[in-house]
Design brief:
about 100 residues, alpha+beta, four-stranded antiparallel sheet, 4 strands
């Protein structure tokens, strides 16, 4: 299992809506995530900076990257685009974080 962490940024005045739209996420999106080997997916918020910290355990980088090519993912990006910093294709601006430490 690969531990994956990344950061994104939500607009300060959109935090409440961002939270609302994730609770719950669309069942079809959840199915795609699980079907592409995603487990234990969490998103945390730093209230001081509006940065989101995403954490997921994935089975492979290839499966993870393939999620972006699914119609439901593209639809989700469009749905969320007005709430956060995005790229031209509506995907969230995201920075991978380097894993430095783990304790069981």
């Amino acid at each position: 299992m690969i531990r994956k962490a990344f950061k994104m940024k939500v607009y300060e005045d959109k935090i409440e809506e961002y939270t609302k739209r994730h609770n719950p996420i669309w069942p079809e999106l959840k199915e795609v995530l699980k079907g592409h080997g995603v487990h234990n997916y969490n998103i945390f918020l730093d209230n001081n900076t509006c940065f989101l910290f995403g954490y997921a355990e994935i089975e492979s980088e290839e499966q993870w990257n393939e999620i972006a090519n699914t119609e439901i993912c593209k639809k989700w990006w469009s749905y969320m685009a007005n709430l956060m910093e995005t790229n031209e294709d509506s995907s969230p601006v995201s920075t991978d974080l380097k894993h430095l430490f783990h304790m069981e």
